[in-house]
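Replying to the earlier thread about multi-chain prediction with a worked example.

Input:
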Amino acid sequence: MTGQDNNAERRENAAPAIELRGISKAFGPVQANKDISISVQPGTIHGIIGENGAGKSTLMSILYGFYKADAGQIFIHGEETLIPDSQAAIRAGIGMVFQHFKLVENFSVLENVVLGVEEGEMIRPSLAKARKHLKELADEYELHVDPDAKIEDLGVGMQQRTEILKALYRQADILILDEPTGVLTPAEADHLFRILNGLKEQGKTIILITHKLREIMEITDTVSVMRRGEMTATVKTAETSPEQLAELMVGRKVLLEVDKKPAEPKEPVLEVENLRMVDEFGVERVKGISFNVHAGEILGIAGVSGNGQAELLKILGGIANGTGQIKVNGQELDLTGKHSDGRSRRERGISHVPEDRQHLGLIMDFAAWENLAFGYHHEPEFQKNKLFMNIPGMIKDAEDKMESFDVRPPNAHLEAKSFSGGNQQKIVLAREITRNPDLLLVGQPTRGVDIGAIEFIHKQIIALRDEGKAILLVSVELDEILSLSDRIAVMFDGHIMGERMPEETNETELGLLMAGVTDTDEGEAA
Amino acid sequence: MEKMPRWADVLLIPLINLTIAFSISALVILAIGENPVVVVKMMVSGALGSSYGWGYTLYYATNFLFTGLAVAVAFQASLFNIGGEGQAAMGGLGVALVCLFIPFPHWAVALVFAMAGGALFGAIWALIPAYLQAKRGSHIVITTIMFNFIAASLLNYLLVNVLRPTGSMDPSSARFPETTHLPTFHDMLTPFGINFSKAAPVNISLLIGLVMAVAVYFLLWRTRLGYEIRSFGKNQSASVYAGISITKITIVAMMISGGIAGMMAINNTMGESERLIMNSVEGAGFIGIAVALMGRNHPFGVLLAALLFGFLYQGGGEVSLWTKIPRELIIVVQALVIMFTGALDNMVRMPVERAFIRAAKRRKAS
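Result:
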């Protein structure tokens, strides 16, 4: 038991960088954090993993002074510290990199870094000082960013580095990162991890919040698992496995691999020919793409978000107009006119699980039963007569669908916003899949969805494929693309860079395509 | 998962809000140098102390009910229709034209046609801003408020130059014929042996207003159109995803809203003044916004809020008659009511909610 001895020794030598004791926090009736205690050793990378809604972000918001805990104590380097606001957190040496960056878009990197910690009345001396300091930081940690570049001109990876620089400039020695890889390409994520390792070597303490098991295994020293507001375990990463962590997160055994038979593609259902789309700002987002999806096949579209996949789904779903030609079951779709809307698409047998369920797929203030008819509310079974809708029938229909898709809690009268991300997604899937569509469009089916529900959602999609339906899957999660798709197309900058079969490719190759590295075999694809 | 009981949500919290609003109003009255207790007594007896007072309170409430429902329907589609004033004024024109130029055998027939005329004119007046919003992106708040001024000027012109009977010095239309006069509460209640004030203007339009409230409820929560209006109001991009036409909902919701506002004219123009006069709407279109806000855009809430504002309006009139407190104080009270029931609602709601949850937990523990 030398490991334990070492631990004991270390605890004597250095107080934990952060120690939380008995933190509790409730939002109205929801207990977001229940009696959470955690101790983070200095100079380590500590992962916090848990499903959506497990309370990770709440806990970190308490630590950063956004929320006040109902009970509990915070110790920083052994000293009890009150953190009533983020200024106090910064003074205590805590820096936070949020999932959604908090940067001023039309300011330069330098200005963003200095914002809020300017010294004196004039800005120039602070900027000059910051420029020098920034250069030191950049050299020290491999954090190179052009200090004069405007944020809006930078990619997300660079913006994230700016956020890290901001924290370091404020002399943070404890850095919290909330889902930092959500928007990064695999290569950018690797670079981020190199930076984090560099920071660790310099003695910084890092807390990494994520729901991706792979990241936890790859970079952390210790990992704490949260489930339903409670801390269920803290283990050394080297002594655990992804399977064990998944089980701790969900509370039961989870199948991480997707179990599916080989596809049996039949006739093409969706035929896209030279599709183009120009957005409202006059920027061409889809630049002449062509592909087919066959019955009984899942075509996965991989790519970093913002490379035209969202627009592609919108055109197919009738939300946006485009030019070119799209055929479904051999018949052409209206791409600009009167029938270029969601209702006409549904009448043509296209169902659409949109990328952003909270803004497109659901009306958060509507009850589940209202949401379960959404888009299909013209269907005869939902009408009582010419004037009124058949509300008892809609509720009954919703209850049936919620039962067969295991939506929890199975209460059709609850508003969509009261369900967890996974259950919201199940509501959307239930609505779209039970329509028995010829073509299912699925965008980011498992974004913000807990592991337990991911398994279920993947099974439903594969079951629909096995019924001989065509499925177009758009996802930024390469794991998901690789495990679900029968064929993979990669989009970059509005183009399809190439097509691959999942068994003949790997993350590295797809990652290159996603980064726009030209694919010489493009002519052979399709 | 405890939740606050529904009665607390619907009744207790508005009551606390109103209490705070009235307490601050009392302080304002004190500051003016009057005794708030006396003022409240005067308001209550003036508005509710006699069938005459009731008659005026309910008459005002009827106006506010129509305009409140109008604003609420548009609000449900997240369209801020502040043109109720102009739409109601144009509704008055519609009602006046129907009453003046169609010979009616009986008031009941006249009422049906007048409702249609008022609704049509109000709806058309709302259609133009709606079209501009849907097709041209002109913001509906701007256009509807502009249309209030256009309506006022148009009516001014028509009353002075077209509708004024020759020889009259008064910029108003001729009196409507006898057969279009609506029964007042006095006329309606006398057969039952109830002696309701003859001078009070409240009339059968109140019942029409109640029917409209029920109709709006059914429209919003029972019909497909209502479903589309509400989904559009809550989330436009999701509505587009579902294949709901933005243009259609904007135009239809605004026309319904304008139609209901225009229908108000059966109360003030046909029921009370029995001719079209200048500035017949008297700000009811704007009060409708407050009524809809306070009533949370729900027909039942709008009804309660309309009654409250009817009371404030009539009671406030009495107060300004007998004290040196100006009638404008009522606007201050209204503003406080709106502020506490609308904007500052969460200030009361959150602690009450927490108290209920704590109490529920304690019950469970013991």
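The longest strand of chain A covers residues 30-40.

Feel free to reuse this layout for your own posts.
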